[in-house]
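Q: I'm a student working through a structural biology exercise. My instructor gave each of us a protein and asked us to get a predicted structure, then write a short paragraph describing it. Mine is Biopolymer transporter ExbD. I'm not confident about reading structure output yet, so if you can add a plain explanation after the tokens, that would really help. Here is the sequence I was given:
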Amino acid sequence: LSTITEEERSDIKTVVLEGDRGISYSLLIEVLDLLRRNGFRAINLRTREIRG
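A: Happy to help. First, here is the predicted structure for Biopolymer transporter ExbD. I'll explain a few features afterward.
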């Protein structure tokens, strides 16, 4: 986030996060909090269908 300029940040409409089984819940919450503290409000979590 530190490399994104204010102008670039204002152009970003939606942030999409996609994790995997290796990411901890606490890390996901930390990333969400960081995004919100930096002004991002439209945050989507991408999921995948598990087949089998």
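A: Here are two points you could use in your paragraph. Strands lie at 15-17, 43-45. The first strand starts at residue 15 and ends at 17. It's a good idea to check both against the output above yourself.
Q: Great, thank you!
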